[in-house]
Amino acid sequence: MTDDEHGTAPIEHAPTSAEPDPLVVHGLAPPDEGWPDDGWEASVTGELADLGQLDTTRSTVLAGAPLAFDEEQGPNPLQKVRDARRRSAEGRYLKRQRRWETQRYAVPYDVAGPKVTLGVIWFVLLMASLRYGSWLALLTLVVAAMIAGLQTGFAWSRHELSDRRMTAIAALVVAAAGFGQRLGLGAVLIVAALGLAAYAVVTVGTTASGTRFAETLIRSSLPAGLAAGSLLALRVDEPGAFLAVVALVSAYETGDFLIGSGSPNAIEGPVAGLVAMAVIGYGFTVFPPDPFTSTSMPAFVLLAAIGAVLGPVAASAILPRGIAWAPGLRRLDSHLLTAPMFLLLT
Q1: 3 state DSSP class of 110
Q2: Reported confidence tier of residue 81, pLDDT bands at 50, 70, 90
Q3: How far apart are CA 290 and CA 188, in angstroms?
Q4: Which structural domain range is residue 38 located in?
Q5: CA atoms of 132 and 264, how far apart (whole Å)
Q6: Are residues 336 and 267 in the same domain?
Q7: Do 155 and 326 meet the contact criterion of CB atoms below 8 Å apart?
Q8: How far apart are CA 256 and CA 275, in angstroms?
Q9: Are residues 92 and 264 in contact, defined by beta-carbon separation less than 8 angstroms?
Q10: Does any domain span residue 157?
Q11: Are residues 269 and 179 in the same domain?
Q12: How much is the pTM?
């Protein structure tokens, strides 16, 4: 008796295929009824996201293209490595940003712009002044101090009463005074401080606002001017000490920036900078420039190390916030303490 005689239709079997439908394999095939198309598509998208198939587009899924997923091995191992590296880099970046924004004396590493190129130009100009004369050091350091005073005064203008023109002029004058060596620099530094205080009194008065105004003018100009002026005075009076301090601090800044700019903590950069400084310091100990000796040079290397580490922190204290924009001051920050100490002790 046939199926027709029993009143039933013949059973049709679905054709087999060597490669099963990937949507069926993963349990993503659409139901026959009872589920709107939009709801099924949304479910498919969610399932694919769970499987790590974020690259698969809606059109590819609905067309039945094979999924980029291996049943035995799971997601592509290379893609997993790339994703892990990306997440790690993002985590380090966010940790650095939180540290810079929340800590008052944090030392940020601004990697935007040609920082390395400008650093190399700065080093070349200072070293070239040993060959071509003090006028090149004068020009380089006066411009750097003026920019530092201008930008620091501008940074304070958003928080306190400030005058970036006066801070730029005062920093320039103090830096240029280094050409008069120690005596000239010291005299002009005192006169500049008194002049800025008098300007604040005349402009604002002897009120609390006037006192804060005078403090803002002095802190925005004199530290940068003193650092640049001390370097200039060393170049004029003690070229050997100038060579040593520029080379030591430049070595520190190189190691600090290259390692610290990619580190999530505040330790690795300074440690790398100190290692680089130690290498240069050992060379100076073996072949000490005048006026140093093999016995005195290690003490000055230690002083340079202390000044180079604390100088950027001092720059953060000068600014309203460590993260405030003042690349001119940051160009001089490692010399804020080191250069005056070398000038005082040599």
Answers
A1: coil
A2: confident
A3: 27
A4: 9-74
A5: 42
A6: yes
A7: yes
A8: 9
A9: yes
A10: yes
A11: yes
A12: 0.73
